[in-house]
Amino acid sequence: MPDNKNFAYRIEIIDECLRNRFRKWTLQNLIDAVNDKLMERYGKTAGKRTIQDDLKFMKEEKEAPIEKRKDGAITYFFYSDVNYSLKNLPIKDEEIGFLNDAINILRQVNDFKLIQDVDEIVNKLQNTVNTNIENGPSIIQFEKHTTAIGTEYIDDIFSAIKDKCALRITYQSFNANESMQFIFHPYLLKEYRNRWFVIGRQEASNKITNLALDRIKAIKNSNSQYVPNDLFDPETYFNNLIGVSMPEGETIQQIDIRVAAKQAPYIRTKPIHHTQEVIKEYAKGDILIRVWLINNYELRSVLQSFGCDLEVLKPASLRESLIETFQNAMECYR
User: Model pTM?
Assistant: First the structure.
């Protein structure tokens, strides 16, 4: 099968055209119809050879009843079976097996309740699969976490973001003696280490606010007009961040870390961050790595978890912070 993201959509368009028997379809007509819709969705077009290959695939691989008819010098394409459509093809046993695998994975990933529409779709797929394929032992398992407090709010927040609705949230941070209530405009749900957060802004604020779902006491819909997100780009906001907290005034820094030889293979195969690069290899097996990150609580927690196997060389401020943390830890064990 051709491997590009437009392929399935092109096939769908060609199938729709050939099912329309009130029009005669030349190759150029098909090319024009496909390209009109490709341009609208993807901003690009397909060439003559591509559409010819698509027709060949439909006929040879999908056994579509595509026929040609000549009218003078013009050749037309059509379905010889007036009731045929690629959308009516039955699912093959192999494809049902793939669906079964996908559903099992989806069920493991989503420990929290799926939103109703998605849950219904998954149930329908699973019912179809179970009637065709025998269940077997698990062949893939994910790490199981305890269900975090606050995940019951995911559906409501997801819907609010999707429908662009403001929320009235009752919230109590770990440091507060009492809860507080405010209007919140949610923009993004974010998971980090099995904890869920919602990023947005409070009413009449131009600052990004990060709320932990396990500290939310209640959520209600608000009549306040929703304020669209003009504060950050969700696709790039976390590019140089571990976790979710963004300390005010912090910027991206070059962080150089010496990794002990015994830990080096693990750091190579599972990098601390996607910006990680190996700068130097030492004779005894140690390596020097560099990452470009914002210095926040989550980063320091990750670095501390490696103990003496990781040594931050710079920046000095991060190095001093870790030294202080380890010295305080030593005092606890004296």
Answer: 0.64
Q: Does domain 151-221 have CATH number 2.30.30?
A: yes
Domain ranges of the chain: 7-88, 151-221, 252-332
- Provide CATH code, domain 252-332: 3.30.70
Q: What is the pLDDT of residues 24-38, one digit of tens each?
A: 999 999 999 999 999
pLDDT tens digit string along 74-120? Answer: 999 999 998 888 877 666 666 666 766 666 666 655 545 554 555 55
Peptide bond into 315 cis (omega under 30): yes
Fold of 7-88: Arc Repressor Mutant, subunit A (1.10.10)
